[in-house]
Amino acid sequence: MNAIPKVGFVSLGCPKASSDSERILTELRAEGYLISPNYHDADLVVVNTCGFIDAAVEESLDAIGEALAENGKVIVTGCLGAKADVVTAAHPSVLAVTGPHATEAVMAAVHAHLPKPHDPYLDLVPPQGIRLTPDHYAYLKISEGCNHRCTFCIIPSMRGDLVSRPIGDVMQEAERLAEAGVKELLVISQDTSAYGVDVKYRTGFWQGRPIRTRMTELAAALSELDVWVRLHYVYPYPHVDEIIPLMAEGKILPYLDIPFQHASPRILKAMKRPAAAENTLARIRAWREICPELVIRSTFITGFPGETEEDFQQLMNFIDEAELDRVGCFTYSAVDGATANALPDHVSDEVKEERRARLMERQADISADRLAARIGQTMTVLIDEISEEGAIGRSYADAPEIDGVVVIEDGADLAVGEFVTVEITDSGEHDLWGEVV
Ligand code: SF4
Question: Which atom of ligand 1 has the smallest separation from the CA of 261?
Fold first, then answer.
């Protein structure tokens, strides 16, 4: 009997890229390929790349180079794959290059260079597919691409316009994941609030029931699965108001990940940000009135071309008044192909960095105060790992990998994926400490 063909897999980039990787891995296993944990045993290697910023392009090209040196047979997919000429210029010997969300094209390339095993055992595939996240949480991708044209971003040129997945397919995947033991679903896309715009909010079906392809209806349907539902990449459009009551009623997590990026109307306009004209502060206040537990995470960019000290002060005032829970801040960096590169009045690296540091210093105090206010509260915590420190988990206020954690020093007996009630006893700048109640 011939040895079963083995494929090595390198997955780089954001959760959206991980979700593509999961699909390709699931397909490979469905067809009977084995996944090799190292280059040496693999018959060929698939590298799923990221091309968002120059550093990611370099990391991706290095990973391709390493796979070629160690194995020799490499198929490239993902965001950088959308720029096939960049890949082939650096590495002419790759076997094939495809863009993002191209499972079929990747499988065709794998078949061409490593024929399918003769007798696939379909039952090797667990019903929830192969996932890169731990068993207890999973990313749920609801759409691909983006209809916006933010001037600093090249995702639309790499991933194309918005294409929403049929709501029936999304719900079936979510249901399968919940049945397989997943406790938390992280809804991702480039713009979650735009879900369904491309299909005019078409009605789909789940369990024989009509449901519109729309964020509110999706959130309500997901809430029936009895798992944590966390929304990422939401823009502050008026219709986002509709999901706040679902949060207040405990149906989905009172957590919103909204990449505001700036607060100066002039800069937001130059960035061509979605919902740039909305009165965001008033909207946040109204949301908090309906749902006081609401936690908001956001990201910002300092030093966008043309940003004056006055623009930056507007951003700092917003930071003061919005009192966001979690904030990430990046300095503007010119991405090859982004239209913002052509804007006048680029800001020096020193000023960009100095503004970033000022913003993060101010935010650190705000985050620390908001966390300190949790001391004495009881919170439900989902356990992510057991370590020497005890158990480490997250409350509704923490998304995996990007937010803080809750450390439970007396939690060594807890199990990964378990929900526990914890009394918060201490807090830091990012994390909380607590005891099992
Ligand atoms: S919303 Fe803007 S930043 Fe986000 S993917 Fe679309 S164009 Fe890029």
Answer: 3
